[in-house]
Amino acid sequence: MAGLHKSEFANPVVNWVDTRLPIFTFMQKEYGTFPTPKNFNYLWNFGALLMVNLMIMIVTGIFLAMNYQPNVATAFDSVQHIMRDVNYGWLLRYVHQNGASMFFIVVFIHIFRGMYYGSYKAPRELLWMFGVTLLLLMMATAFMGYVLPWGQMSYWGATVITNLFSAFPIVGGPIVTWLWGGFSVDNPTLNRFFSLHYLLPFVITGVSFLHVAALHITGSNNPLGIDVKSPQDTLPFHPYYTAKDSVGLCVYLLVFALIVFFAPGMLGDPLNSVPANPLQTPAEIVPEWYFLPFYAILRSVPSKLGGVLMMFGSIAVLFVLPWLDTSKIRSARFRPVYRQLIWVWVLSVIVLGMVGGHRPEGIWVVLGRVATAYYFLHFLVILPVLGKLERPLPLPESISRPVLSLGGGPLPGGATAKPMEKV
Amino acid sequence: MADTSVVARDMANLGIAPAKTHVADPTKRDFLKLIQLAGAAIGVGAIAWPFINSMNPSKDVLAVSSLEVDLTPIVVGQGITVLWRGKPIFVRHRTPKEIEEATSVTMAQLSDPATDASRTQPGEAQWIVLVGICTHLGCIPVGNKPTDARGEWGGWFCPCHGSQYDTSGRVRHGPAPANLAVPPYAFESPTKIKIG
After folding, report:
1. Residue A414 has pLDDT above 80, yes or no
2. Are A71 and A43 in contact (CB under 8 A)?
3. Do residue A410 and residue B59 have CB atoms under 8 angstroms apart?
4. What's the pTM?
5. Cβ–Cβ of B51/A88 closer than 8 Å?
6. What is residue B170's predicted lDDT score, i.e. its pLDDT?
7. Which member of B93, B136, B161, B173 is catalytic?
8. Between chains, do B50 and A88 touch, taking CB under 8 Å as contact?
9. Do the chains contact at A410 and B53, CB–CB below 8 Å?
10. pLDDT value, residue A308
11. Nearest-neighbour CA in chain B from A91: distance (Å)
């Protein structure tokens, strides 16, 4: 329905804008008074951290692009030029480079949070699927960004990853040629990767808005995994969670700054400081650390097409996770068996990460296969069956109840009996 | 939102005695807000500066910002054009007649008064070094070669809008508002100058 918005803001300028475009009312509703479960722990910081990280990546990326040249003849040198000649170029690049690692650290914790507390379960399935889409977009963006410095790892990473598509019968070869824009990774490939690497963060921004919009329809999950039952279970987002997010943000920025200023090369591969050479594959070729588990799955399957399908499948399985997990209980706190097994799954991912970082010889081959099998076993067998067999612990009747009985300070006996009167 | 009465009740529950003189002091609140605002402004500025400064000329650009020019091949009456900081620089070996024309002008005849001595180096009046960009709208005037159209004052002539410069590079006619600029330069030896 068309019509002016009836704004309640006292400031005349704000009111004038808000009447015509109620962005202030919107912000107030979604980030000011937005009712948020009052029992969040610090794992609920990571969504906000991801937003900050995305903004850091976009801003540093825009300024890097002012000095970067997407041409095979000059790309490597232009990155060295940024590092040596451009004012604060080293800072922009180290923040951007390590920002990618920070992004994945934060997103992995964010995803683990969702898995541990069952945030993907009804009614948040679509929210979760947007999240998995964001992970895929992040992976694509990170991969193409890694190609841009045009070092040895850039070049051979690009060659290997694009060649994944050659595993598909009949269409594989033409697809790879199409991706390259030629018959090997070369200038057309670098140009299109740069173009897409610049585009995708804005796609990520758009999908993030859908992710957050869906979140604000369903409301946040919480460590107890039970629904909000009354206003007593919630706090306004501001100032309570803006303050809590700020504390987490300070810790995050501290870690980020420590890496950028004291160990900027810690997470990168020194081989990428060697210019790309299409005539020589490096002796040790590994992807960035955040791709190692997926890389390990690829190598663990003794079949070209099988390995590629399993690798893509390891992400694809996340899309259907809400339907694979048959348990109606969200939080692992009340699922005594799931609470143990989720850590076994985490262990399998860590083992896969280690396997990905070693040559596929001896014990690493065995470990890789066992961990790959467990990764899929968890989703495809354990979760569907466990939901039927597991006997969950009794759920608290509301969010307020355990908050007041566990940690509310020395309350008089009468007060705990009638918690509703308390607030 | 927690109002003061709820806070007071919670404090009473927890056995914390309220402060004896709990009087709201708005100046303290204002002071805290100003400190917070100033801190935020410094933080934003400190973060913004590397980004802003990254758009300034980089070290390699600054490194090529000076240029040595060998004067020996330039015969009397001839001028050459060299590229310095992406701009054309005129280096002209003036004839005695041209020097005479440049020095004999009275200031009243000039729209942008400047003596010829202020535009040349002491004892090197035969050399005039100018930024070869018309001060009107940025075209490059012609006149370095003796065969070029040099305009009525024998210096340079801008083909775009007809501005004319004398043998000292001073504007004498046309829409140009100012004289051709003299770049910073110094004689390293009698036959070599360093621009920039």
Report:
1. no
2. no
3. no
4. 0.84
5. yes
6. 93
7. B161
8. yes
9. no
10. 94
11. 8
Closest-CA residue to A244 (of A408, A46, A26, A34): A46
- pLDDT per residue as tens, chain B (196 positions): 445 566 666 666 666 665 555 667 778 888 999 999 999 999 999 999 999 999 999 998 888 788 899 999 998 888 899 999 889 999 999 999 999 988 888 888 898 999 988 999 988 889 999 999 999 999 999 988 878 888 888 899 999 998 999 999 999 988 999 999 999 999 999 889 999 8
Which of chain A's residues have a Cβ under 8 Å away from the Cβ of B52?
A: none
For residue A156, give the nearest of A310, A266, A274 by alpha carbon. Answer: A274
- In angstroms, the separation between the Cα of residue B53 and the nearest Cα of chain A is 6
Q: Averaging pLDDT over each range in A268-272, A349-353, A403-407, B19-23, which range is the top one?
A: A349-353
Q: Residue A418 above 80 pLDDT?
A: no
| Distance, C-alpha B105 to centroid of its chain | 29
Separation CA A311–CA B78 (nearest Å): 73
Q: Between B14, B50, B59, which is nearest A92 by CB?
A: B50
User: Of A326, A327, A328, A324, nearest to A316 (Cα)?
Assistant: A324
Q: Quote the tokens at residue B163.
A: 């501005």
Cα(B182)–Cα(B130) distance, integer angstroms: 5
Closest partner residue to B60 (CB to CB) among A81, A411, A412 is A81
- Predicted confidence (pLDDT) per residue in A5-53, tens digit: 999 999 999 999 999 999 999 999 999 999 999 999 999 999 999 999 9
Q: B56 in contact with A at a CB cutoff of 8 Å?
A: yes
Q: Quote the mean pLDDT of chain A.
A: 92
Return all residues near B44 (Cβ < 8 A) that are at least 6 apart.
none
Query: Chain A: nearest CA to B58, how far in angstroms?
Result: 4
Q: How much is the average pLDDT of A127-132? A: 98
Interface of A with B in 374-413 (CB under 8 A): 409-412
Angle at B179 between CA B176 and CA B182, to 5 degrees: 140
Are A84 and B56 a contacting pair at CB < 8 A? Answer: no
List chain A residues with CB under 8 Å of B14: 409-410
B46 touches chain A (CB under 8 A): no
The 10 Å Cβ neighbour count of residue A105 is 20
A chain contacts of residue B6, beta-carbon cutoff 8 Å: 423
* B26 touches A at CB < 8 Å: no
Nearest to A107, CA basis, from A18, A43, A200, A193: A43
